[in-house]
Structure formats: structure tokens, C-alpha cells
Specification:
Layout: H1 2-6, H2 8-38, H3 44-78, H4 89-115, H5 123-129, H6 131-145
Helix pairs in contact: 2-3, 2-4, 2-5, 3-4, 4-6
């Protein structure tokens, strides 16, 4: 476990870079869904382009960023002396990350449905859903930086 203390700054850097990338995808993908459901069906090529963008965002950015965030987050949790498990903020952060991962899964399901022209939500509803990762991100940052509990 001594190695984890040695590489701690780099573990934190990689974790933060991955989280930023993951958040970018979680904030952008619902916006693509807005465009997807609000695209006029007469513009089929435009619709195919949006489906491709959704697919590439998920496969090339979001999924790798989520996996990297989790991997390096777990390494941070395992680093001796970094986390006091008796305080409450870490549990709120972990619960929020689990919810963020669930939202990620929800977006993956929506992409599959939209690809098959199954529209469950309106553009307005996707705009509102876009607030979920924003709320969780703010909560996580407050827990990590302020540590109010």
C-alpha cells in the first residue's frame, strides 16, 4: 500500500481528468437527445448524424471516462490516510457517484431506444433531465471540498 501514497498526486490528477471528461459527456448527451427528438423526421441524414454522435460520445468518451473515474477513485479510497471512514461526507459522495453511474446507465438505455425510434421523453423533459448530473456534481464537489459532515 506504500505505492499508493507515492503515486497519490498522480492518482488524483488522473481521477480528476477522468471525472471532468465523464461530466462533459453526462452534460452533453441529454442535449444531443433534445436535438434527436426535436429533429424533423424529413431530415433523416441529420438524424443519422445525431445517432452517430450519441454513439461516439458514449463509446469513446463517456464509458472510458466513467471506468477511469471509478478505477482511480477506488485507488484514492484505498490510499492509506486519505479517507476517514467515520465522517459522513464520504458516504454522501459515494452515494452520489453511484447515482451518477445509474444516470449514466439510464442515458445508455435512452440511446438504444432513440436509435430504434422509441421516444419516451420530449425535448423539454431531456432538458430537465440534464439537471440531474449538474445537481450530483455540485453535491459531490461540496462534499469533497467543504466536507460539511
Amino acid at each position: 500500500m506504500e505505492i499508493l501514497n507515492t503515486i497519490y498526486p498522480w492518482t488524483k490528477v488522473i481521477h480528476l481528468l477522468a471525472v471532468i471528461s465523464w461530466m462533459a459527456g453526462l452534460l452533453y448527451l441529454p442535449r444531443l437527445y433534445v436535438y434527436h427528438v426535436e429533429t424533423d423526421s424529413k431530415h433523416l441524414d441529420k438524424g443519422k448524424t445525431i445517432v452517430l454522435w450519441e454513439h461516439l460520445l458514449i463509446k469513446r468518451i463517456m464509458n472510458p471516462a466513467m471506468i477511469t473515474s471509478w478505477t482511480f477513485g477506488i485507488l484514492l479510497l484505498l490510499t492509506p490516510g486519505i479517507v476517514d471512514w467515520a465522517v459522513f461526507w464520504i458516504w454522501i459522495k459515494i452515494a452520489s457517484v453511484i447515482l451518477m453511474t445509474g444516470f449514466h446507465g439510464f442515458l445508455l438505455k435512452q440511446q438504444k431506444l432513440l436509435k430504434n425510434n422509441v421516444i419516451q421523453y420530449s425535448g423539454k423533459q431531456y432538458r430537465l433531465l440534464n439537471e440531474v448530473p449538474t445537481f450530483l456534481m455540485v453535491l459531490i464537489i461540496i462534499m469533497v471540498v467543504v466536507r460539511p459532515f
